[in-house]
Amino acid sequence: MTITPTQRLLCVTWEKLPDNFLLPDDPVDNLHQPLLATALSESLGLANFITPVMLIGTNFGLCVNVEGKTVVKAPDWFYIPQVFPISTNQNRRSYTPRLEGDIPAIVMEFISESDGGEYSLTPYYPFGKWYFYEQILQVPIYVIFYPLTGVLEVRELQDKRYQLRECDAQGRYFISSMNLALGVWQGSRMNLTGYWLRWWNQDNQILPWPEELVAIERQRAEIERLRADRLAARLRELGITDQE
What we know:
By secondary structure, the protein is α+β, with helices and mostly antiparallel strands. The chain has 2 domains: 12-207, Alpha-Beta Complex (tt1808, chain A); 209-244. 21% of the residues lie in helices and 26% in strands. It has 3 helices and 12 strands, in the order βαβββββαββββββα. It has helices spanning 32-46, 129-137, 210-237; strands at 12-13, 55-57, 62-66, 69-73, 77-80, 106-110, 141-146, 151-158, 161-164, 173-175, 180-189, 192-200. A 6-stranded mixed beta sheet has the order 2-5-6-7-8-9. A 3-stranded antiparallel beta sheet has the order 1-3-4, covered by helices on one side. A 3-stranded antiparallel beta sheet has the order 10-11-12. The longest helix is centred in the last third of the chain and has 28 residues, at 210-237. The protein is elongated, with a radius of gyration of 23 Å.
């Protein structure tokens, strides 16, 4: 699907969020959404992908000043390669691209039961999400995921327009800024069976979740124990014991 936004010249300034600005606190209407976001970040952490200069978050406000008005959108998940450091006694309330670091390299929206404006190209305040990511922030990769059906749409910014990308033979999308592939995996986690977004490295190996890594380590330990038992049994057959 190709969507053409209305062309407008906007005055965009990269300003810090005012201290008295009330951030939206909309409730999540799908319990799967926060689990999806957490799973994406956890596997990156275990793979030692995340560094102190990065910013990875969920439902965290990306803000900018457009024509004198503060605009804030909170993607379900986002990745920013490099941000400027802040004081140790400070907490980020929001993030202003350019002023505080890079433009987000990727933003994701998970489709819920109610319309969240993921396809909205409204070119007027408070602006549609699609328009905000494409025309104002100019985020290189925009991902829209349907958890209920497993449909994954990955769009890349080309000539200031989002173009739908085609997946590879495995149904995945290589994200060059992360050097990882994004795809859909079906299974169970946290007592929830359904479709999940997962990362794969360049060796076509899936980045494991914590519980999967524990299972891998247990399996490896069991293999080592069996190998040691077989070796001990073979030595006994040869009449070799530890006492000798």
